[in-house]
Amino acid sequence: ARGIYTFDLIQLETNTADNNQVTGLDVYPTITNGDIYIENNDNKTLQLLIVDTQGRVRIKKKIRNSTIINLDTMDNGVYICTLFVEGSKAVVNYKIVKI
């Protein structure tokens, strides 16, 4: 519909951390044909989000331990794996390439 719309902007208080600043977390391999491993040595509660290049959420999951994420049902391409550390403002991003 035509018209004038106004929007309020909200600033989210998150801290995008360098992948090495959050201890005990790692995601590998970043180039894979199947599984990725999320190492969570400190057993932090994490919210995992894997998004494709068109912004569609492909996987959303809460993680408390190290785990394996299977990407077999996903198309080949580039994905962003984001880990939100519960109880803090830390956000860690990894680029994953599915081949």
Entry keywords:
9 strands, 3-stranded antiparallel sheet, globular, 99 residues, mainly beta
**Assembly state (oligomeric):** single chain
Distance between the termini: 42 Å
Characterize the main sheet: 6 strands, mixed
Q: Structural class of the secondary structure composition?
A: mainly beta
Overall 3D shape: globular
Number of helices: 0
3D structure, described in words:
This protein has no helices and nine strands. It is an all-beta fold and 99 residues long. Mean pLDDT is 85; it is low at 10-16.
Quick description:
With 99 residues, the chain is mainly β.
How is the secondary structure organized here?
Layout: E1 15-16, E2 25-28, E3 31-32, E4 35-40, E5 46-52, E6 57-63, E7 67-70, E8 77-85, E9 90-98
